[in-house]
Design brief:
about 325 residues; TIM Barrel; nine-stranded parallel sheet; Aldo/keto reductase; oxidoreductase
Amino acid sequence: MNTTQLGKTGPAVSIVGLGAMGMSDMYGPSDRAESLATLAAAVEAGVTLIDTGDFYGLGHNEMLIGEALKTLPRDKLVLSVKTGALRDPAGTFLGHDTRPAALKNFLAYSLKRLGVDYIDVYRPARLDPDVPIEDTIGAIGEMVQAGWVRHIGLSEVGPETIRRAAAVHPISDLQIEYSLISRGIEDNILPTVRALGIGVTAYGVLSRGLISGHYSREKANASSDFRSRSPRFQGENLDHNLAIAETIGRLAAEKGVTAAQLAIAWVVSRGTDIVPLIGARRRDRLAEALGALEVTLTPEDIAALDTAVPKDAAAGSRYPEAMMAHLDSEKG
């Protein structure tokens, strides 16, 4: 497994990371034993970056990773934790709280659930409209000074917020959605982070399974998870997007790889400063995804993908309208 550095100030990490959210939340029930086996298999394969959030499964995801860490080499792993999202007992999202006192409280619980002394990369999950980003980053900076956090990251924020945050403290990376059919960061956000020496950890590289080659109208009809409420998975939008997925699958077959591998390889090809997060919940899906690292895309392959899947090809927004309103990254 090759490694890269998260930005000019961040830690060295494997060129792909494991996003653990689906093991606890958003995609229906998961199997604890298989989740733990998948975490172990990822580390054995050389994955060093594990991404979670303190609100994933209302703390379940951190406790799951904490259990896995009892038999994994903590000193060789980079734990990335998002924070600040508020949920009620039913799991409904209520907003965000990134006040300094709240962040220190959230961090204390994360350290306890994970069973660790420090978190490698700590980041607000979204911009809190009621708290200046300078106050948020300043508070995490104090936690860096105290030794509880090693690096500061950002998530789903736009160019102005990125620049303001970086003026307060070095930022290792921006976590944001990026895939063949979610390329909005290329206009303004990607140039901004590159100018500032900030890396990117890309989630949603398979667009929540939509372009993985494993999703279908039948699965959509039977689904009651997060995707059933996502505009890209509804009605005519889904028909349009599944047609795009079929096109990706055809190009993948011509190259002798799977659709998921082609889609992940495309993100890897965008630059060493971009680290895809693989959201595998099972070992077989993990093995398939890691196979993307053996795929070399030629300039002709890239051109064919750009022609077949234009930048704004997807139908529907990537989140429901209410959630889109919380994305500073979508505000220009």
